[in-house]
Design brief:
The protein is mainly α and 280 residues long. The chain has 12 helices and 2 strands, in the order αββααααααααααα. The protein has one domain (2-275). The protein has a two-stranded antiparallel ribbon with strand order 1-2.
Length: 280
């Protein structure tokens, strides 16, 4: 039954991602080019224009996949995915590029000075929805203190996963490949249906991402990573969650000082995986 539900969640996520992405390309009236095309266009690492419309499509995919998954895992996936998508899109579309604060440290530093940027709002919003999703998943056993600590640790894991996938969205296909691999690792656990939703949405979005027509942006990457975090929380015990949280936090802190792109380029295996399917 679990495998069937996971399969349905993955297929629903993939189908929704494709359908929403196609719908967003349809002109809203004769002679128009679709919804606010310029607002959804960015410049990629080559200096070429690229669309952010994959973000809402992937976000819709994981939300529908979570709904199909059902149960506490599905409910947590919908909550976490909605938070990642909504607050990520606010940052994508509302960021003041003249006063942009880059990286988690930049956003937290602005918050400490009393300045609420769109990035700072994203940190707070995704943090809140991640804790709420973890509360849904936390088993109603043990002491109140133990449950509270599990919820906070789980919320931190979900939020850190959302941020980590977003940090990888710097080259075509990179974030989607990483999310797909993480999802595959979680298929056998209790969060398998959420992991399948991640795989389905990532697989559907990958061709356009590799072709450099689309990119996830904060909305898509945060939604995908948050649901991956839900799968990780549901599929591991307390020690496993803490180990994954430590790894995610460590990578996030490392990203403030080290370029992931440079590390990947210097590392055999990672370099080839990162380049697979990408334009020369």
């Amino acid at each position: 039954m679990g495998a069937v539900r996971a399969g349905c969640a993955g297929l629903a996520a993939a189908a929704t991602t494709v359908a929403v992405r196609r719908a967003l390309d349809r002109p809203v009236s004769r002679g128009s080019a679709g919804p606010g095309r310029e607002r959804w266009t960015r410049v990629n690492h080559r200096g070429a224009p690229i669309s952010l419309l994959a973000g809402p499509a992937v976000g819709a995919g994981v939300l529908v996949g979570g709904a199909v998954a059902g149960g506490r895992v599905g409910a947590a996936a919908v909550i976490a995915g909605a938070g990642g998508l909504g607050f990520g899109l606010i940052d994508d579309l509302g960021e003041d590029t003249d006063r942009a604060r880059k990286g988690l440290r930049g956003h937290l530093g602005a918050l400490a000075r009393g300045e609420l940027t769109t990035g700072g709002l994203k940190v707070l919003g995704i943090g809140a929805t991640s804790v709420l999703a973890a509360a849904v998943l936390t088993a109603p056993t043990g002491s109140r203190v133990a449950r509270g600590l599990d919820t906070l640790a789980g919320g931190a894991l979900i939020a850190a996963s959302a941020n980590l996938v977003n940090l990888l969205d710097l080259r075509p296909g990179r974030a989607l490949k990483a999310a797909g691999i993480g999802g595959a690792a979680g298929l056998a656990g209790a969060g398998g249906a959420a992991a399948a939703a991640v795989i389905g949405a990532a697989a559907a979005a990958l061709p356009a991402d590799l072709a450099e027509r689309d990119m996830l942006g904060d909305g898509g990457a945060n939604a995908l990573g948050a649901v991956l975090g839900v799968a990780a929380f549901a599929g591991t015990g307390r020690r496993g969650r803490l180990a994954l949280l430590a790894a995610a936090v460590g990578l996030t802190l490392a990203s403030e000082r080290v370029s992931f792109s440079e590390v990947i380029a210097r590392t055999p295996g990672l370099r080839e995986l990162d380049a697979w399917g990408r334009r020369a």
